[in-house]
Amino acid sequence: MAGPSLPLASMSIPAAEVYAQQANPAFEAELAARTAFREAAFLLPHLRPGMQLLDVGCGPGSITLGLAEVVAPGQVVGIDIQSAQIEQARVRAAARGVATVRFEVADIYGLPFPDDSFDAAFANGVLMHLRKPVRALAELRRVLRPGGIAGIRDPDLGASLYAPTTPLLEQWLAMRVRVRQHNGGDPFLSRHYRRLLLKAGFVRAEACASVDSAGSLEEIHRHTAFLKAQLQGHARTVVAEGWMDQATVDAAAAEIDAWAQRPDAFSATTWCQAVGWRATESVRESGSVRRSKGAAKERGPFREYEIANLHCCVGAGVRCAGARPGTGRAAGRGIFRQTDAPDREFSARRHYRHCRPPDRAEAHRGVQAAGHNR
Ligand SMILES: C[S@@+](CC[C@H](N)C(=O)[O-])C[C@H]1O[C@@H](n2cnc3c(N)ncnc32)[C@H](O)[C@@H]1O
User: Fold this and answer.
1) Is pTM beyond 0.90 here?
2) Which residue ranges make up each domain of the chain?
3) Given this structure, which CATH class describes domain 25-277?
4) Which of 302-311, 351-360, 361-370 has the highest mean pLDDT?
């Protein structure tokens, strides 16, 4: 039997974007069992004690608390658009006695933090629900300090395997895709992470995948609990849109239970995960800059650039080849990316005056470590 039908919740999420699992206690219980060790394993090697970290769409905060332990004494902020989730997260933090974390209600599209606030940001199971993931990633990049990193992770439903299946089970699995698309998300988003991160203005993006498989009685039992909790949230849209009636949804839930009893049941879900780096240094200018595009020279008003790949760079206190010591000028050929239109990128040889390293020594190390000083 399917679990109790949940009310259609009123959403404060931007128009036409609906988080299907809002106010679904069974699903929230599944999220509460998640851990940083498991869900953020790809990000952990990049984290260091003392870092300030932001967890966006933190849900009940179970992963956030694990991340807080990793970066302590660094401060961690978890934000979520659902106030009920933030309340749960606060209770969980108090129960675990984690004092370096705080939770706030906020929207990923308009984070209530100044530029350059965090060393790392994390989003697990969030971007696939969004209509404008690049906008959200650009907002994450804004609140990261130069050299900061974003770790993002979502399942890709195009790489989700179930065996053996039945027609009704297949029908239900197809409904999950349909609901996500209908609600403004993209069930096949995470395979595109590298492109999306670069488009959002990150200068480097590396991706990998992990597979969440269930192939023993115990694992199938766990995965079935997740599937049925997820079904409860999705059923609201499926029934409201008239794609299935409640009796068919209940039959699909029973089919999941029957699948779980099979000694040969198997499932595997692929989670794509990526890390994006914000440039170690940025340049602000108010004038116009001449840029090369093929043979043509163009002029354009550019407010701020991030240096994605500058062969030769100098700013206040940053020494490197081609520099005129003490002038605060730089000269070099590099790839410049326009910060307020991150998909616009150009390569040019140019001079500039206004380096804005966060810290002189740190910027110097960053430039050398990134190999930009050759
Ligand atoms: C699948 S849950 C993942 C929760 C948590 N990251 C985890 O993995 O356990 C997705 C979360 O994103 C939140 N969310 C959805 N849209 C959001 C937005 N625009 N801004 C902030 N949070 C959002 C939801 O409220 C929900 O808690």
Assistant:
1) no
2) 25-277, 282-369
3) alpha beta
4) 302-311
